[in-house]
Write a structure and sequence with these properties.
The protein is α/β, with parallel strands linked by helices. It has 10 helices and 10 strands.
């Protein structure tokens, strides 16, 4: 069933941005604003703070303990609301400076566990895309937000844009994106979906296959077949195909990104596993969650 928050052309009506008030979240919001400007989508800034009352419930006879927790909860809630108000002012100020007018921005603060509450807000708000920062305040919270982003990718069932603090995306003009392929039949449908989801942008797809050298001749034939197919079926699509052969694939990927001015890495949820097969888990996470390029994961 088609997501009811995306039109037949793939446009997005609602954007969810989970935030922790960090610079990473701020940059994610900037991306969301520019996406909204192209799609007329409303934006929801969503923050989850820890609920100490959950722990208090484990001590039903400790009335004083629960009373103290209630006071702490109230302070945490008020602080979160103040931070959200201050944060949303920054976002609206940025929108004004960039002349991004008539963008609807709402906010919500919730107590609980981030992963669970994001799952709940996805069901109630029904976003067409989630834009999320991949790091947060300090080392510990950064790991937390990174794990939340990983969970969102695995469970959301809708496109997710991962944004680091240093990630930059062109505000105007053509965007060059890298799409990883292993010549699966699903790649044809995935690229169709990608062009629809990003229909508000002028994009150039650099379709890349990562190879260690084996079956290179066969791979070249498959790549040529893929390019021919899309040139016939998408006459206006700007697409080039490449095969990267390198013993150090992580270096090969980074070299390609730099040499070709790649501004966005695009992967389907399933294709994310390409990187986990090619690299050990720590290197794969480094590529996906620490790159200066935003990473777009879609279904």
């Amino acid at each position: 069933m088609e997501n009811n928050n995306q039109s037949k052309k793939g446009s997005i009506d609602r954007i969810l941005v989970p935030i922790d008030f960090s610079d990473y979240s701020l940059n994610a919001c900037f991306f969301a604003l520019h996406l909204s400007a192209r799609t007329d989508a409303e934006i929801l800034l969503f923050h989850v703070f820890f609920n100490p009352m959950v722990d208090a419930m484990a001590f039903p006879d400790a009335f004083t303990y629960q009373s103290n927790m209630a006071d702490i909860f109230k302070d945490l809630e008020q602080n979160a609301e103040k931070q959200m108000k201050k944060f949303s002012k920054k976002i609206k100020r940025y929108a004004g400076l960039k002349n991004l007018k008539d963008i609807k921005i709402t906010t919500e603060v919730k107590a609980g566990q981030p992963g669970e509450e994001i799952d709940n807000i996805i069901k109630s708000f029904g976003p067409g895309i989630i834009v999320i920062g991949t790091r947060g305040h300090g080392e510990q919270s950064g790991e937390t937000l990174g794990s939340v982003a990983a969970r969102v990718i695995d469970t959301a069932g809708i496109p997710v844009l991962l944004v680091t603090r240093d990630a930059r995306l062109k505000e105007k003009g053509e965007i060059k994106l890298l799409y990883a392929t292993d010549f699966d039949e699903s790649d044809y449908q995935s690229i169709d979906s990608l062009t629809k989801i990003l229909s508000g942008y002028s994009i150039r797809i650099e379709c890349v296959h990562f190879s260690t050298g084996a079956n290179s001749k066969n791979n070249s034939g498959k790549m040529a077949e893929m390019k021919t197919h899309f040139l016939k079926t998408h006459k206006k699509l700007s697409l080039e195909c490449h095969i990267i052969e390198s013993k150090n694939l992580l270096q090969g990927v980074n070299d390609f990104i730099e040499a070709n001015d790649i501004e966005l890495i695009a992967l389907t949820h399933k294709k994310r596993n390409i990187f986990y097969r090619l690299f050990n888990p720590s290197l794969a996470k480094k590529l996906l969650f620490q790159t200066k390029r935003p990473v777009f994961v879609f279904n």
